[in-house]
């Protein structure tokens, strides 16, 4: 794995994982990107070393400048200071992701096993899509144990739910809660936690709500994200009925993978063929110690396109307790950047592929003070 020493400057709004080497040349167009590799960045300022352990894709462009200037410097020995160029992320702020597929796109976020991060994924990806200037409606389909309003910080504003809309007690726009930070993100809760789910509510009722969202006078949303409850019982069947896409959230452990494989079969039987996978709570130190399955092993076991890899981050718990989504943190965290990249791929119906990268052995000197 490459280790590049230099000065790294990154922005708080990362909308692309493409990393470009640039000295005196302009921003590289997408047409010149030749190959993508994986690298870890280690940036040194003076005597303090700060290591960015998250992976980035390095874009090697098809140009003599790259082949003559960049590639020889990438092969420099470790602990050598490289001068003359900077490394920074090309954020692609000058373009908006191209929305693929038929609008609105109804996406269900499911897993089968509880506690793997479905609600966290729905909240952060929904807010990322809103920041990309898309209209998003997040539907919390977990009736008895709803938590999406807590993660978005909207728990005190839930006055009406979808059940009041179906009973004729309020209008649909009264049940939709608009986020004050990003007004193109709205939340719809199915029911209040202290009430039981009526026997008449099912897949047809949720499909009617989705159709009503499509026919709103304000215009149809671009994305309708459905937070699916855990398990494969009636709540799961209700949540996946109106969806035409699915995001399967799993963790790299055998219990989550077995449930994810079962849920994949149920989604395909229901007619949902566009299924992508997010691997959550990945720890690179445990993978190196062979105590946790790698992302490549997870992808080979499930055989699904990979939408994103979310590293383990303690900031997730802090943001959840504050009701402040992770992607709004400044400076951005590793998990927040991974959610933004996953949202970008979801918009363009793209996917990533896990690759096996062998690390070069570290040469140590026989004298400790020489490194």
CATH architecture of the largest domain: 3-Layer(aba) Sandwich
CATH first level of the largest domain: which class? Alpha Beta
Strand order of the largest sheet: 9-10-8-11-7-12-13-14
Q: Give me the count of strands.
A: 14
Number of helices: 12
Q: Give the end-to-end Cα distance, rounded to a whole number of Å.
A: 19 Å
**What is the CATH topology descriptor of the largest domain?**
Rossmann fold
Order of helices and strands: EEEEEHEEHEHHHEEHEHEHEHHEHH
Residue fraction in strands: 15-25%
Q: Briefly note the structural class of the backbone.
A: alpha/beta
CATH homology group of the largest domain: P-loop containing nucleotide triphosphate hydrolases
Overall mean pLDDT stands at 76
How many separate structural domains?
A: 2
How are the SSEs placed, and which strands pair?
Layout: E1 2-4, E2 8-9, E3 18-22, E4 33-45, E5 48-61, H1 64-74, E6 86-89, E7 105-110, H2 118-131, E8 136-140, H3 148-152, H4 162-166, H5 172-175, E9 177-178, E10 185-189, H6 203-214, E11 223-227, H7 234-240, E12 245-250, H8 254-269, E13 274-282, H9 284-288, H10 295-302, E14 306-311, H11 315-322, H12 334-347
Parallel strand pairs: 1-4, 2-6, 3-5, 7-11, 7-12, 8-10, 8-11, 12-13, 13-14
Antiparallel strand pairs: 3-6, 4-5, 9-10
